[in-house]
Request: fold
Amino acid sequence: MCAVSETPTQPGRRASARGSASDTHRSADARGSRPARSGPNGRDESAAKLLRRNRELAILNAIAGALNRSLDVSAGLREALALVGELLGLRAGWVWLLDDAGEPHLAAAQALPPYLADTRYPERMSGSCYCLSTFVKGDLRGAANVNIVECSRLWEAHHQPGHAAEAEGLRYHASIPLHAGAKKLGVMNVASTDWRRLEPDELQLLATIGDQVGLAVERAQLSAEATRAAARLATAEERNRLAREIHDTLAQNLAGIALYLEAAEQAMPTSEGRAREGVRRALELARIGLRESRRSVADLRAAPLRDRTLPEALGELATQTAREARFDVNYTPPESFPRLSASVEVGIYRIAQEALTNVARHADARHAALALERGDGEVRLLVCDDGRGFDPERLGQTGGRAAGVGGAGGEGHFGLIGMGERARLLGTTLSVESAPGEGTRVEVRVPLR
Reply:
């Protein structure tokens, strides 16, 4: 066993030369070509080899059990790292996984040195590094596909005044690539304070552990996707159930109220003006409630975000609105827009839907624009029109009618109220700019957490 040179190297340089996988095979062939030793020394060597093989099997079984006990990727990886460290005498370990966009994130860590574990400096354990960039490029090779490199993250600790002690003697790590077939999943790093060149058998053992971890990660990802698909199906079924209930109860009751009020209005003497006015207002509210309940039923049944991304759903909404309301809606879907949480996507979609609905009903506009953008730590939705506009201050003071996104009909101000409530549920506020004759602009900026 050869000690690795402690001569300072540039971050990410491989710490020592290693035998290749073919070297491992040649060594095995050479051993197999020699006649078996006899006598006490030969028996001792065979016994030691048998003990080593048994220990390796025990390590693999223990790690397989840890990975199979939980579908929680992070929990399984932490337990596997702890076992790798304990059974192979390694000091620390951490696992990077790639998301759908190919960006790395720290999935699990075990016994990180203070320099890397310090939460005041999250950048030390975020973003790419030498081993990750090498893995993504497909250059992470070596004996049994395991590299021994000087950690570029710990290199900074050893070369910054006053930080060497925070590395706790760690300098090198083995990087084990994680794959699921041809798919790149991430990298597992394991480190020790007294790092040495690993023997071919140890490298092969780490590579086998990497295969186990890769399979477990793939299984957990497939299980998570199946769970999400089941949740989407359950959500769709619940939406349909709610739609049926609204249609069979609330909508039917409102329709009945409207019919009775219409009959009462026709039968009422013309002299009873105040009573007639009360009935007329009740009838108007009943009609509004009936329209809204029918729209809710349609929205619940449509499930516009099902099997669509948010930009795709907004594009369909813009096309449908332009077709039904007979005015132009300008919308260009953003490129490479990330998937957001279901609640955020639904909230943004409903705000856009309410805004365009009110433009169609009350703004008397010829053109409208819809925009969806991702900025620095936030998502921005913008809806504007060239309609008649309104005075936002007057609307806020009197609750009167307004045009454009706020609405000019009898129920127009409910549009702003509903959009404002949805914005608050998303952890933000609704911004509305308008003036009589100058159209309306509504904007919401949703922070990404």
Observations:
- Residues 183 and 218 are 10 Å apart (CA to CA).
- DSSP finds twelve helices and ten strands in the chain.
- The chain has two domains: 50-225, 305-449.
- The first helix runs from residue 21 to 33.
